């Protein structure tokens, strides 16, 4: 049987606040990555998936802390931790993470550009080598044809 003590409740409350802070940090850290295109459907899908995953982890946390009993003070602590980060740090985290994601986006775009140039050069080289191979094959075919014709003519 699980006993409810005041120190256990205080510890669970603090763990709930920490869980709320961590979940808010993840939300505001990754939100700018999905909001760069400013498409509402992408943002709504991100919000939905994020909070479904968060609800799953919340269920695991409640199961570990209270043996599956639903304690509203833990959920209140999580909301309090989330609100704390949203109120005081969300703008700073969003600005920093949006700059990081813009930098990563620029790196990806520039690497794709150089990859495109590399593929174009490789195609040009392969086309030139194919033309050379085609010429060599034509020359070999002519040589083989004349050799076979001589052999047939000599046997007659």
Explain the overall architecture.
By secondary structure, the protein is an all-alpha fold. It contains 4 helices and no strands. It has helices at residues 6-34, 40-66, 72-88, 90-155. α1 runs antiparallel to α2 and α1 (6-34) packs across α3 (72-88).
Q: Describe the main β-sheet briefly.
A: none
Specify the structural class.
mainly alpha
**Strand elements, count:** 0
State the helical fraction: over 70%
Runs in which pLDDT lies below 50 for 5 or more consecutive residues are none
What is the averaged pLDDT score? Answer: 80
> How many alpha or pi helices?
4
Task: Work out the strand percent.
Answer: under 5%
Q: What Rg do the Cα atoms give?
A: 33 Å
SSE arrangement, N to C? HHHH
> What's the N-to-C terminus distance?
107 Å
3D shape: elongated
Characteristic terms for this protein:
mainly alpha
SSE layout and pairing:
Blueprint: H1 6-34, H2 40-66, H3 72-88, H4 90-155
Helix pairs in contact: 1-2, 1-3, 1-4
Gist of the model:
The protein is an all-alpha fold and 156 residues long. It has helices at residues 6-34, 40-66, 72-88, 90-155.
């Amino acid at each position: 049987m699980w006993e409810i003590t005041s120190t256990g409740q205080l510890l669970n409350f603090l763990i709930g606040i920490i869980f709320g802070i961590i979940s808010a940090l993840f939300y505001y850290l990754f939100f700018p990555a999905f909001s760069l295109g400013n498409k509402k459907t992408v943002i709504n899908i991100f919000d939905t998936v994020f909070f479904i995953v968060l609800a799953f982890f919340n269920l695991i946390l409640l199961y570990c802390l209270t043996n599956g009993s639903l304690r509203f003070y833990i959920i209140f602590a999580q909301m309090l931790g989330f609100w704390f980060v949203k109120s005081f740090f969300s703008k700073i985290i969003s600005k920093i993470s949006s700059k990081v994601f813009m930098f990563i986006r620029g790196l990806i775009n520039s690497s794709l550009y150089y990859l495109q140039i590399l593929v174009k050069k490789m195609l040009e080289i392969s086309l030139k080598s194919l033309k050379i191979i085609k010429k060599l094959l034509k020359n070999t075919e002519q040589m083989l044809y004349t050799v076979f014709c001589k052999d047939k003519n000599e046997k007659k």
